[in-house]
Amino acid sequence: MKKYLFKIMMVFLAVFLVACQQSNLEEAEIQDVPVSKEGLQVETEKDTYPTTTDEIVLVIKNESDEELNATSFNLEKKVEGIWYDFPSEESGPTDAVGGYQPPNSTSKISFFTKELKYDLAPGSYRAKFIDVAAEFQVTK
């Protein structure tokens, strides 16, 4: 019986912590963000990351004739069908390791999850880079 009560208490604690985290998120300004636009396409290196991951890698396909110098991207989390900004410790985009993306090339940028204000919880996320975004899942 004690094990059963303990399990119930742990479930309530987990739900409470996730609810507290989600109440601190702000709704993303733009809900519909394409995966590609004007020769720029992004995807995450993995479709699924564990909650314990140290970094998330974004693969950038620059099929345009222009160079890209953006070195950061924002994370957003989907909660009940609505995208919310997932904040980093610093305000604004999370600084990424990477940088210059030459024309007609593929490159990667990554950031370390220790830069996030909250730990990753299971759910749907997207990495938004310039005007495009790549969706991925976080699991236990």
TrEMBL record:
InterPro entries given in the database record: Big_14
Keywords tagged on the record: Signal
One Pfam family named in its UniProt record: Big_14
Keyword Transcription regulation among UniProt keywords: no
Domain Bacterial Ig-like: 37-127
Superkingdom of source: Bacteria
Secretion signal span: 1-19
Keyword Signal: yes
Protein name: Bacterial Ig-like domain-containing protein
Record organism: Sporosarcina aquimarina
